[in-house]
Protein backbone atom coordinates (compact mmCIF):
# COMPACT_ATOMS: atom_id res chain seq x y z
CA UNK A 1 0.00 0.00 0.00
CA UNK A 2 1.53 3.43 -0.88
CA UNK A 3 2.50 5.63 2.06
CA UNK A 4 -0.18 8.24 1.51
CA UNK A 5 -2.81 5.53 1.21
CA UNK A 6 -1.49 4.00 4.40
CA UNK A 7 -1.75 7.37 6.14
CA UNK A 8 -5.26 7.95 4.91
CA UNK A 9 -6.47 4.51 5.95
CA UNK A 10 -4.66 4.56 9.27
CA UNK A 11 -6.71 7.48 10.48
CA UNK A 12 -9.78 5.35 9.79
CA UNK A 13 -8.63 2.47 11.94
CA UNK A 14 -11.02 1.09 14.52
CA UNK A 15 -10.54 2.76 17.86
CA UNK A 16 -11.27 1.46 21.31
CA UNK A 17 -13.49 3.27 23.80
CA UNK A 18 -10.41 4.67 25.51
CA UNK A 19 -9.23 6.10 22.22
CA UNK A 20 -12.37 8.05 21.52
CA UNK A 21 -11.43 11.25 23.36
CA UNK A 22 -8.25 11.42 21.26
CA UNK A 23 -9.73 9.87 18.17
CA UNK A 24 -8.31 10.98 14.87
CA UNK A 25 -11.77 11.58 13.42
CA UNK A 26 -11.14 15.29 13.94
CA UNK A 27 -12.77 15.75 17.33
CA UNK A 28 -14.22 19.22 17.34
CA UNK A 29 -15.34 21.34 20.22
CA UNK A 30 -19.07 21.90 20.23
CA UNK A 31 -18.53 25.62 19.50
CA UNK A 32 -16.99 24.78 16.14
CA UNK A 33 -19.88 22.62 15.01
CA UNK A 34 -22.67 24.09 12.90
CA UNK A 35 -26.01 24.50 14.65
CA UNK A 36 -27.73 21.16 14.57
CA UNK A 37 -30.69 19.48 16.13
CA UNK A 38 -28.80 16.19 16.46
CA UNK A 39 -28.99 14.69 19.92
CA UNK A 40 -26.01 12.43 20.58
CA UNK A 41 -26.61 9.66 23.03
CA UNK A 42 -24.23 7.25 24.67
CA UNK A 43 -26.95 5.20 26.32
CA UNK A 44 -26.72 1.52 25.49
CA UNK A 45 -30.39 0.85 24.80
CA UNK A 46 -31.70 -2.70 24.79
CA UNK A 47 -31.48 -4.60 21.54
CA UNK A 48 -33.31 -7.63 20.24
CA UNK A 49 -31.61 -11.01 20.05
CA UNK A 50 -30.73 -10.67 16.39
CA UNK A 51 -29.37 -7.18 16.96
CA UNK A 52 -27.22 -8.50 19.80
CA UNK A 53 -25.82 -11.09 17.43
CA UNK A 54 -25.05 -8.37 14.92
CA UNK A 55 -23.53 -6.19 17.61
CA UNK A 56 -21.21 -8.99 18.76
CA UNK A 57 -20.27 -9.48 15.15
CA UNK A 58 -19.48 -5.78 15.06
CA UNK A 59 -16.39 -6.31 17.17
CA UNK A 60 -14.88 -7.85 14.04
CA UNK A 61 -12.36 -5.53 12.39
CA UNK A 62 -14.18 -5.71 9.07
CA UNK A 63 -17.17 -3.82 10.44
CA UNK A 64 -17.21 -0.26 9.12
CA UNK A 65 -20.54 0.89 10.58
CA UNK A 66 -22.46 -0.42 13.52
CA UNK A 67 -25.90 1.15 13.81
CA UNK A 68 -27.51 0.85 17.23
CA UNK A 69 -31.11 1.65 18.07
CA UNK A 70 -31.34 4.38 15.47
CA UNK A 71 -34.51 6.48 15.40
CA UNK A 72 -34.93 9.46 13.09
CA UNK A 73 -37.52 12.20 13.56
CA UNK A 74 -38.63 15.07 11.37
CA UNK A 75 -39.98 17.48 13.96
CA UNK A 76 -42.36 15.45 16.12
CA UNK A 77 -42.84 12.81 13.40
CA UNK A 78 -40.92 9.58 13.98
CA UNK A 79 -39.93 8.66 10.42
CA UNK A 80 -38.00 5.49 11.22
CA UNK A 81 -37.40 3.50 14.36
CA UNK A 82 -35.21 0.84 15.94
CA UNK A 83 -32.64 0.31 13.23
CA UNK A 84 -29.85 -2.08 14.21
CA UNK A 85 -27.46 -3.27 11.54
CA UNK A 86 -23.79 -3.46 10.68
CA UNK A 87 -22.02 -2.62 7.45
CA UNK A 88 -19.00 -4.69 6.49
CA UNK A 89 -15.87 -3.56 4.75
CA UNK A 90 -15.62 -4.23 1.01
CA UNK A 91 -19.18 -5.42 0.85
CA UNK A 92 -22.27 -3.99 -0.80
CA UNK A 93 -25.15 -3.51 1.62
CA UNK A 94 -28.58 -2.92 0.08
CA UNK A 95 -31.59 -1.17 1.64
CA UNK A 96 -34.91 -2.27 0.18
CA UNK A 97 -38.54 -1.65 1.12
CA UNK A 98 -41.67 0.24 0.05
CA UNK A 99 -41.73 3.97 -0.58
CA UNK A 100 -41.65 6.05 2.59
CA UNK A 101 -40.18 3.32 4.82
CA UNK A 102 -37.12 5.45 5.61
CA UNK A 103 -34.39 4.06 3.34
CA UNK A 104 -33.10 7.48 2.27
CA UNK A 105 -33.53 8.84 5.79
CA UNK A 106 -31.37 6.05 7.22
CA UNK A 107 -28.82 6.29 4.40
CA UNK A 108 -28.38 10.01 5.09
CA UNK A 109 -27.44 9.18 8.69
CA UNK A 110 -24.25 7.52 7.45
CA UNK A 111 -22.73 10.80 6.30
CA UNK A 112 -24.73 13.16 8.51
CA UNK A 113 -26.63 14.55 5.54
CA UNK A 114 -29.71 14.72 7.76
CA UNK A 115 -27.92 17.57 9.55
CA UNK A 116 -28.78 19.65 6.50
CA UNK A 117 -32.52 19.12 7.10
CA UNK A 118 -33.50 21.52 9.83
CA UNK A 119 -36.28 19.43 11.35
CA UNK A 120 -34.30 16.17 11.36
CA UNK A 121 -33.22 14.68 14.68
CA UNK A 122 -31.34 11.47 15.21
CA UNK A 123 -31.41 9.22 18.28
CA UNK A 124 -29.19 6.22 18.86
CA UNK A 125 -25.73 5.59 17.52
CA UNK A 126 -24.06 5.30 14.15
CA UNK A 127 -20.63 3.93 15.03
CA UNK A 128 -18.00 4.37 12.33
CA UNK A 129 -15.03 2.19 13.23
CA UNK A 130 -16.30 2.40 16.78
CA UNK A 131 -16.62 6.20 16.83
CA UNK A 132 -20.11 7.65 17.08
CA UNK A 133 -20.64 9.90 14.06
CA UNK A 134 -23.12 11.89 16.12
CA UNK A 135 -20.65 12.57 18.92
CA UNK A 136 -20.59 16.36 19.28
CA UNK A 137 -16.83 16.34 18.77
CA UNK A 138 -17.15 14.97 15.25
CA UNK A 139 -16.93 17.39 12.34
CA UNK A 140 -19.63 16.49 9.77
CA UNK A 141 -17.51 17.96 6.97
CA UNK A 142 -14.74 15.53 7.85
CA UNK A 143 -17.30 12.72 7.89
CA UNK A 144 -18.44 13.58 4.37
CA UNK A 145 -14.85 13.46 3.08
CA UNK A 146 -14.63 9.83 4.14
CA UNK A 147 -18.14 8.88 3.19
CA UNK A 148 -19.20 9.97 -0.29
CA UNK A 149 -22.74 10.13 -1.69
CA UNK A 150 -24.16 9.49 -5.15
CA UNK A 151 -27.75 10.61 -5.66
CA UNK A 152 -30.69 9.24 -7.60
CA UNK A 153 -30.53 11.86 -10.31
CA UNK A 154 -27.07 12.43 -11.74
CA UNK A 155 -26.06 15.93 -10.63
CA UNK A 156 -22.84 16.95 -12.38
CA UNK A 157 -21.69 20.53 -11.82
CA UNK A 158 -22.24 22.75 -14.89
CA UNK A 159 -18.51 22.64 -15.54
CA UNK A 160 -16.14 20.60 -17.68
CA UNK A 161 -15.77 16.86 -17.13
CA UNK A 162 -12.25 17.53 -15.85
CA UNK A 163 -13.34 20.23 -13.40
CA UNK A 164 -16.13 18.05 -12.00
CA UNK A 165 -13.54 15.51 -10.89
CA UNK A 166 -10.77 17.96 -9.95
CA UNK A 167 -13.06 20.10 -7.78
CA UNK A 168 -13.03 17.94 -4.63
CA UNK A 169 -9.30 17.13 -4.61
CA UNK A 170 -8.54 20.84 -5.28
CA UNK A 171 -10.55 22.13 -2.32
CA UNK A 172 -9.25 19.43 -0.02
CA UNK A 173 -5.70 20.58 -0.93
CA UNK A 174 -4.60 17.34 -2.59
CA UNK A 175 -0.87 17.37 -3.32
CA UNK A 176 -1.24 14.85 -6.11
CA UNK A 177 -1.03 15.85 -9.75
CA UNK A 178 -4.60 16.77 -10.70
CA UNK A 179 -4.35 15.26 -14.19
CA UNK A 180 -3.43 11.95 -12.58
CA UNK A 181 -6.24 12.20 -10.02
CA UNK A 182 -8.79 12.91 -12.75
CA UNK A 183 -7.59 10.05 -14.95
CA UNK A 184 -7.51 7.58 -12.07
CA UNK A 185 -11.03 8.44 -10.90
CA UNK A 186 -12.45 8.28 -14.41
CA UNK A 187 -10.74 4.93 -15.02
CA UNK A 188 -12.09 3.56 -11.74
CA UNK A 189 -15.57 4.70 -12.73
CA UNK A 190 -15.18 2.98 -16.13
CA UNK A 191 -15.66 6.27 -17.97
CA UNK A 192 -12.13 7.19 -19.07
CA UNK A 193 -12.24 5.65 -22.53
CA UNK A 194 -15.49 7.41 -23.35
CA UNK A 195 -14.40 10.88 -22.26
CA UNK A 196 -10.61 11.06 -22.49
CA UNK A 197 -10.77 13.15 -25.67
CA UNK A 198 -13.36 15.60 -24.35
CA UNK A 199 -12.22 16.30 -20.79
CA UNK A 200 -12.58 20.06 -21.22
CA UNK A 201 -16.12 19.77 -22.61
CA UNK A 202 -19.14 20.33 -20.42
CA UNK A 203 -20.27 17.42 -18.26
CA UNK A 204 -23.83 18.39 -19.11
CA UNK A 205 -23.28 16.99 -22.62
CA UNK A 206 -22.86 13.44 -21.31
CA UNK A 207 -25.64 10.85 -21.40
CA UNK A 208 -27.51 10.07 -18.17
CA UNK A 209 -25.55 6.86 -17.59
CA UNK A 210 -22.27 8.66 -18.29
CA UNK A 211 -23.28 11.49 -15.95
CA UNK A 212 -23.97 8.97 -13.19
CA UNK A 213 -20.55 7.36 -13.70
CA UNK A 214 -19.06 10.86 -13.64
CA UNK A 215 -20.77 11.45 -10.28
CA UNK A 216 -19.30 8.17 -9.02
CA UNK A 217 -15.86 9.29 -10.31
CA UNK A 218 -16.35 12.63 -8.55
CA UNK A 219 -17.20 10.84 -5.31
CA UNK A 220 -14.17 8.55 -5.47
CA UNK A 221 -11.73 11.32 -6.51
CA UNK A 222 -11.54 12.46 -2.89
CA UNK A 223 -10.66 8.90 -1.85
CA UNK A 224 -13.50 8.14 0.54
CA UNK A 225 -13.72 4.83 2.33
CA UNK A 226 -17.46 4.45 1.83
CA UNK A 227 -19.82 5.33 -1.03
CA UNK A 228 -23.53 5.80 -0.32
CA UNK A 229 -25.83 5.46 -3.32
CA UNK A 230 -29.50 6.40 -3.20
CA UNK A 231 -31.25 4.68 -6.12
CA UNK A 232 -28.33 5.43 -8.44
CA UNK A 233 -29.84 3.61 -11.41
CA UNK A 234 -33.46 4.68 -11.23
CA UNK A 235 -33.02 7.27 -13.99
CA UNK A 236 -31.03 4.91 -16.22
CA UNK A 237 -31.88 2.43 -18.95
CA UNK A 238 -31.08 -1.29 -18.48
CA UNK A 239 -27.73 -1.07 -20.29
CA UNK A 240 -26.51 1.90 -18.25
CA UNK A 241 -27.86 0.16 -15.13
CA UNK A 242 -25.87 -2.98 -15.93
CA UNK A 243 -22.73 -0.87 -16.34
CA UNK A 244 -23.23 0.76 -12.94
CA UNK A 245 -23.86 -2.67 -11.38
CA UNK A 246 -20.63 -4.03 -12.92
CA UNK A 247 -18.84 -0.94 -11.70
CA UNK A 248 -20.11 -1.46 -8.16
CA UNK A 249 -18.74 -5.00 -8.21
CA UNK A 250 -15.36 -3.66 -9.29
CA UNK A 251 -15.35 -0.83 -6.77
CA UNK A 252 -16.13 -3.00 -3.78
CA UNK A 253 -12.57 -4.35 -3.65
CA UNK A 254 -11.52 -0.81 -2.67
CA UNK A 255 -14.64 0.74 -1.17
CA UNK A 256 -17.53 -0.17 1.06
CA UNK A 257 -20.84 0.53 -0.66
CA UNK A 258 -24.37 1.11 0.64
CA UNK A 259 -27.13 1.23 -1.94
CA UNK A 260 -30.82 2.05 -1.71
CA UNK A 261 -32.74 0.40 -4.50
CA UNK A 262 -36.35 -0.25 -5.48
CA UNK A 263 -35.13 -2.88 -7.88
CA UNK A 264 -35.13 -6.16 -6.00
CA UNK A 265 -33.30 -7.98 -8.77
CA UNK A 266 -30.61 -5.36 -8.44
CA UNK A 267 -30.32 -5.88 -4.68
CA UNK A 268 -30.19 -9.64 -5.22
CA UNK A 269 -27.59 -9.30 -8.00
CA UNK A 270 -25.16 -6.85 -6.46
CA UNK A 271 -25.38 -6.90 -2.69
CA UNK A 272 -23.82 -9.08 -0.03
CA UNK A 273 -26.24 -8.12 2.74
CA UNK A 274 -29.72 -6.68 2.58
CA UNK A 275 -31.80 -4.69 5.02
CA UNK A 276 -35.56 -4.85 4.46
CA UNK A 277 -37.57 -1.94 5.84
CA UNK A 278 -41.32 -1.49 5.93
CA UNK A 279 -43.81 0.95 7.40
CA UNK A 280 -46.32 0.51 10.16
CA UNK A 281 -49.33 2.72 10.67
CA UNK A 282 -49.64 4.76 13.86
CA UNK A 283 -53.44 4.60 14.29
CA UNK A 284 -53.71 7.60 16.61
CA UNK A 285 -51.98 10.00 14.22
CA UNK A 286 -52.64 8.18 10.94
CA UNK A 287 -48.95 8.48 10.13
CA UNK A 288 -46.52 5.77 9.09
CA UNK A 289 -43.24 5.02 10.78
CA UNK A 290 -40.56 3.08 8.96
CA UNK A 291 -38.84 0.18 10.66
CA UNK A 292 -36.16 -2.35 9.91
CA UNK A 293 -37.83 -5.76 9.60
CA UNK A 294 -34.90 -7.95 8.78
CA UNK A 295 -31.20 -7.63 8.07
CA UNK A 296 -29.20 -10.59 6.84
CA UNK A 297 -27.11 -11.96 4.02
CA UNK A 298 -28.75 -11.19 0.69
CA UNK A 299 -29.07 -14.91 0.03
CA UNK A 300 -31.06 -15.42 3.21
CA UNK A 301 -33.27 -12.37 2.64
CA UNK A 302 -34.19 -13.53 -0.85
CA UNK A 303 -34.32 -17.30 -0.36
CA UNK A 304 -35.13 -17.99 3.30
CA UNK A 305 -36.21 -14.83 5.11
CA UNK A 306 -37.27 -15.32 8.70
CA UNK A 307 -40.05 -12.70 8.68
CA UNK A 308 -43.24 -13.17 6.73
CA UNK A 309 -43.28 -9.48 5.78
CA UNK A 310 -39.89 -9.86 4.10
CA UNK A 311 -41.07 -12.92 2.24
CA UNK A 312 -44.20 -11.17 1.03
CA UNK A 313 -42.17 -8.22 -0.20
CA UNK A 314 -39.39 -10.11 -1.97
CA UNK A 315 -41.88 -12.43 -3.66
CA UNK A 316 -43.88 -9.43 -4.86
CA UNK A 317 -46.98 -10.07 -2.74
CA UNK A 318 -46.70 -6.67 -1.09
CA UNK A 319 -45.33 -3.25 -1.84
N1 LIG B 1 -37.19 16.43 4.77
C1 LIG B 1 -38.22 15.78 5.30
N2 LIG B 1 -39.09 16.42 6.12
C2 LIG B 1 -40.15 15.77 6.67
N3 LIG B 1 -40.42 14.47 6.46
C3 LIG B 1 -39.59 13.79 5.65
C4 LIG B 1 -38.46 14.40 5.04
N4 LIG B 1 -37.82 13.46 4.29
C5 LIG B 1 -38.52 12.32 4.45
N5 LIG B 1 -39.58 12.52 5.26
C6 LIG B 1 -40.57 11.50 5.67
O1 LIG B 1 -39.87 10.44 6.28
C7 LIG B 1 -40.40 9.18 5.88
C8 LIG B 1 -39.29 8.36 5.24
O2 LIG B 1 -38.93 9.00 4.03
P1 LIG B 1 -37.73 8.51 3.11
O3 LIG B 1 -37.56 9.51 2.03
O4 LIG B 1 -36.58 8.20 3.97
O5 LIG B 1 -38.34 7.13 2.54
P2 LIG B 1 -37.78 6.18 1.41
O6 LIG B 1 -37.88 4.80 1.94
O7 LIG B 1 -36.46 6.65 0.94
O8 LIG B 1 -38.88 6.35 0.26
P3 LIG B 1 -38.73 6.31 -1.34
O9 LIG B 1 -38.57 4.85 -1.67
O10 LIG B 1 -40.01 6.86 -1.84
O11 LIG B 1 -37.54 7.13 -1.74
C9 LIG B 1 -41.56 9.49 4.96
O12 LIG B 1 -42.74 9.47 5.74
C10 LIG B 1 -41.27 10.89 4.46
O13 LIG B 1 -42.45 11.57 4.15
MG1 LIG C 1 -35.74 7.41 -0.88
UniProtKB/TrEMBL annotation:
Q: Where is this region: Disordered?
A: 1-39
List the SMART domains.
AAA
Carries keyword Nucleotide-binding? yes
Which SUPFAM superfamilies does the record match to this protein? P-loop containing nucleoside triphosphate hydrolases
A Gene Ontology BP annotation from the UniProt entry: phosphate ion transmembrane transport
For whether the record's keyword set contains Disulfide bond, the answer is no
Residue span(s) of domain ABC transporter:
65-304
InterPro entries for the chain: AAA+_ATPase, ABC_transporter-like_ATP-bd, ABC_transporter-like_CS, P-loop_NTPase, PstB-like
The UniProt keyword set, sorted, is: ATP-binding, Nucleotide-binding, Transport
Q: Name one GO cellular component term.
A: membrane
- Please give the Gene Ontology molecular function terms for this protein: ATP binding; ATP hydrolysis activity; phosphate transmembrane transporter activity
Name of this protein: Unannotated protein
Taxonomically, what lineage is the organism?
A: unclassified sequences, metagenomes, ecological metagenomes
Amino acid sequence: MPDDEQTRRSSLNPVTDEDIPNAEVSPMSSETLPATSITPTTAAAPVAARAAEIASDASAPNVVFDVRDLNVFYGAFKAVRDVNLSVHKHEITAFIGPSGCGKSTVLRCFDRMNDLIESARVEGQVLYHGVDLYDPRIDPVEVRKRIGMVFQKPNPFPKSIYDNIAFGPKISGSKENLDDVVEKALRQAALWDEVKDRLKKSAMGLSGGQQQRLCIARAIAVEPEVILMDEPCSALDPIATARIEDLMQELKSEYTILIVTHNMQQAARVSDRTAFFTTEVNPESDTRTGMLVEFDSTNTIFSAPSDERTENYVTGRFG
